[in-house]
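ok trying this again, last paste got cut off
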Amino acid sequence: MKVLIIGLGSIAKKHISALNEIGNFDIHAYRSSHDSQNYNGVKNVYEEKGFDKYDFFLISNPTSKHLGTIKSLLKYKKPLFIEKPLFSDTGAEYQKIVQEIEESDIPSYIGCNLRFLKSLQKMKELFSSLIVNEINIYCGSYLPDWRPGTDYRKVYSANRKQGGGVNKDLIHELDYLYWIAGEPVNSRAVFKSNSSLSIDAIDYANYIWEYDGFCANIILNYYRRDPKRTFEIVAQEGTYLVDLLANRITKNGEVIFASDYDIGETYFDQMKYFTDEILIKGESSTNNSLTAYKILELCLKN
């Protein structure tokens, strides 16, 4: 298969590694400068020529550029693998693109690799049989530690105009809750950007999603020095706690599931799913542009 990547950053390199592990891919990258360095056998492309020959496009440039990139590629009617989040904003122009993707029957998948984390997959299995009273999700880590040797204030995560912000960066938490529990009947949120990090992007978000029978509370932040990523379900049957960093589930403090599976391996399973199920078998995507847009609307709403 022949794939074109738009945006050759750190996430794209994880996808390239997954493609190479699967094998039999001719990988090209659309570059903006002839001075761009070569990467791991990827062929650089500098002009929009022969794009109709690619089997799919992988979009992993800054979120703020997704709209223009997708708009320019739709005429080729090729499958789209789009790194999360789908867009940096919502509104009529964005809805129009989603509608065009769906009406043109262009296969799309928005990359949310945590759906392939073993502990979350197991919790999804268990969830359907539980009588849920409350859900608490927490994801906090220290933005300056994300990219060692780089000024965190200059990366897109810290800059609102580039599509940064903890609510978009950590949309994974909203995505997996939507995937496991479904669409809430109501939602509200509080966003802040006044922590000691001194960045203009949102560095704290607190969501409350209302469901029939229970509420879910989701807290996201950029400033916690000791990383914590948990998914707690307080049910009639007991309290289940998914520790995403340890890839483990406890019930009332006792381990009921654990996996040595590394979170980095989710990129392989995700790409394998996309290539095997969507590209080869033609199955419907579990996270297409329409679903991802609904989640994005919930993400940005306050």
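PB: full thing came through this time. Residues 2-112 form a domain with the Rossmann fold fold (CATH 3.40.50.720).
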